[in-house]
Amino acid sequence: MTILSELLKTLHSRDPERVAVTLQFSGKDDLRITCGQLLRGSNAFARTLEREKINPGEVIVLILQHGE
Predict the structure, then answer these.
(1) I need a surface site. Which of 4, 10, 12, 55 has the fewest CB within 10 A?
(2) How far apart are the first and last CA of the chain?
């Protein structure tokens, strides 16, 4: 089974500027996020979890604003 992080790393190695996600907003232009941007953002989020001593396998609840 392929997991999202593996797929994203593979796509990034081939073309870091490839669009991975397009966010759509009412009344605004679409926001395209590249594989590189998505990886950098997810790595920053992972470092935050590590800093807060959240360990792999722990269950947490995330409440996030919609958007980038």
Answers:
(1) 55
(2) 27
